[in-house]
Each structure stands twice: as structure tokens, then as C-alpha cells.
Write a structure and sequence with these properties.
Blueprint (H helix, E strand, L loop, with lengths): L3 E7 L4 E7 L1 H11 L3 H18 L8 E6 L8 E6 L4 E5 L16 H5 L4 E7 L6 E6 L6 H11 L4 E9 L5 E11 L5 H17 L1 H6 L4 H8 L5 E8 L8 H11 L1 H10 L3 E4 L6 E4 L1 H12 L1
Antiparallel strand pairs: 1-2, 1-10, 2-9, 3-4, 3-6, 4-5, 6-7, 8-9, 11-12
The protein binds zinc ion (ZN).
Amino acid sequence: MKDYLIRGASDDGALRFFACITTDLVEEARQIHDCYPVAAAALGRMLTVGSMMGTMLKSDGDILTLQINGKGPAKGIVVVSDNSGNVRGYINNPHVETMLKQSGKLDVGAAVGIDGNLTVIKDFGLKEPYVGQIPIVSGEIADDFTVYFANSEQTPSSVGLGVLVQPESHVSAAGGFIVQVMPEALDETIDKLEQNLIQVNLKSITSMINEGMNAEAIIGEVLKDIDFSIYEKKEIGYVCNCSRERVEKALISMGETEIRDIIETDEKAELACHFCSNKYHFNKEELINLLEQAKK
Ligand SMILES: [Zn+2]
């Protein structure tokens, strides 16, 4: 089964939901960044929520950036998405030593750490992007986004994220859901949802995906006894849109002094994309050309 995302709403209009399976794209991220297990789980949860939040964007060209910068050994994570739900991201320290909770589960909260912020940036191509920020609650990521939606977007939401990493490190299951309560929701529906979420949390989203439950089945558990419809189902993946032109622009924006410095000391430059590790090489002649452009 390829990675995919579904979205829809309860038939009474009280709830809207997103759910996805992200096993392949999280495994791809793990391979690109050589993540150790805790780092793979932390980055994987951010990629999973990023994909779902990306599809909340209305227009093509809108860009969502998620940043979490706790003081834990992961040293911060960045994820970028758009309304296709495709994602890319990186973790500043992919080699976080394995940290376990007493339950034996990977301790993502300790790896991410607290004393920092969760920041959500939505760039609609306007002068100023939308920026929402909350202090990190636990670093477990799902909890942090639940609080973000309540406080910054005034939308009561439940976020469930799961990434299962095998001891030898490969990602065997990943996915998640977001359910949001609309202002017109009746207490009866909210009560049902809350009861269902208690059961879902007991079971844990990771074990549900590991049992082979797909996104539809997970939403079926979250919205048990609530009538709902799926409006859209689409494939999602790990997609980077870097290009030589973008890297050239980044180099030019570094300014004359910096570029001259590179030419004088190294006579060449190799730049790697943060998101996909693609390498871009520039020889002396090409750097001189960029220097000319930086002067303009
Ligand atoms: Zn790239």
C-alpha cells in the first residue's frame, strides 16, 4: 500500500478529519538523513502532521512550514508541505542516541525537549506570512499540535501520530489523524468523539497501523458510531523541489563578500540540500559569474 491521505467530515458537519499512512515517506526520510530510531520517530511524526496540515491550505503555491526547536538532543526539526500533502523535512541531529521510556517506547518527548517553541508558518504568497507559535508542551509532537490548534487557531482538535521504528532502525509503520470540532458541533457528537478517543489512545495509533489498519479503518475507530463521509483520497510522498537555480539564488543572496571569500579560499563550492541531500557543485568560473550577479 502506497502512502496516502484521506479527508472528510461527519455527516452532521460537526467534525472534519484528516488521516494518512506515511510509512514509505518516513522511511525515505530516515534513509536520506541517516536517522537513528528516536530521530526517525520524531521527524516522522512531524512529517505526518505536516502532510495533513498541508492539505488544509486552500491554494496551489501556498506553503506550510513547521518548526519545533526544543532544547533536547534532536536540536530542532523543520518540515515543509503544501496543499498536495507532499512533505520534506530535516532534523538537526539525526544521530540522537536511543532514549526509551519506562514502557520501552522511544522517548520522542525527551529527544525533542521543551523550553522552546512550536512554530507554524503559512505562506500564502502575501507580503506577510501567517505565523502561529506556542511554547512546546511535551515535545511528543501530537500533544503540541493539539494545543497549537486550540490556542492559535481556536479549533479544538485531536491529533494522533505514530511511527514504529524497528530496532535495526527501519520504519515499519507510520501514520496519523487529525479530527477538528467545528463551532456548530452538538454536545452529543463531541461526547461520542471523546469516548472513542479514549479507546484509540489506549490502543495507540502506532499499534493500529502496525496491525495493518489503513487510514479509513483508523478514522472508523475515531468516529465510531458517528456517520461520516470521505471527500478525498490522494497519494502523498516525500518530495523535494530543490533545483540548481534555487541554490544559485541562495548563493547570490549570501552577498559579494561571502562569494569572494569562497572563490579565494576554495575556488569551488559544494552545497547540499537540507531536505534531500542532493549535492550541487560550482566551479570557479561559475562562482565568478554568481559574484557578478550578486554585485547587481
Ligand atoms: Zn532537495
